[in-house]
Amino acid sequence: MPSLATRSREIVSQGIAEQLGPIIRLHDELRREATVALDLERAAARLAGEIAAFDAPAVIGAAGDLEIAFWQAVRAFERAGVATTAAASEMRQRQWNVAELAQGWLMGERAPSDAAAALALRAAALVASAVLRKASDQVALISTFDEWEHATCPCCGGAPDFALVHQSSRTLVCSRCDTAWERWTAGCLGCGANRAPTMGRVRSPYLGYTLAICHACGRYLKERPGRDGCLPLVERALTEELDAAAERRGLRL
User: Fold this and answer.
1) 98/120 Cα distance (integer angstroms)
2) Which of 48, 171, 233, 252 has minimal Cβ neighbours within 10 Å of its Cβ?
3) Is residue 55 part of a domain?
4) Are residues 190 and 109 in the same domain?
5) Where are the beta strands (DSSP E) in 52-198?
């Protein structure tokens, strides 16, 4: 029988999934329609050389004009109630460079305090992540990532933002392209620390998640038990407060 925390998380996740419906549907649509033409032989060679299969900035740069998709994302956030009408209206009065916003997201730029600018970054991130997901889908046709032993994504080289913990391994999920791969370690992904007080874990029973914090190198990861599939967009919305708490501490993925 599922635990109380698991049932609670499932109920909350279902509600979030319903609310984010317009965003999830748009992400799927953008993912299907994205222009991505990878050289899979080169991608395989990079993986064999223990290098991420593709260069994320280059893939996004080659995806063509993303402005229409960008404004579609703004409307989706507004319809889902994630963005206020005021922020969306202010956005429409200003000029935005979608390519620069997407590259800022790739570099880990944090959301600014200005609501319109924060929405612009979030919209660009949704579009860019859909493009990267399309590219990672292509790479998944040639590799299962079973030989990948790194803590960064085998497809785009991004850092994972959460993990599904099962037995002695964790399934890591990339924060940029949603690729999932297994890593047989329970320690910090940066330095390997796994004992208190260097490595600390703060449980959130209501969400069913644990915030794993490394005091040595300042990294964090969100963890929850199980191997069941997950929808990254929903999981990230569910755990936004955990990310905010980590960022307030000056931690990074």
Assistant:
1) 8
2) 48
3) yes
4) no
5) 160-166, 169-174, 180-183
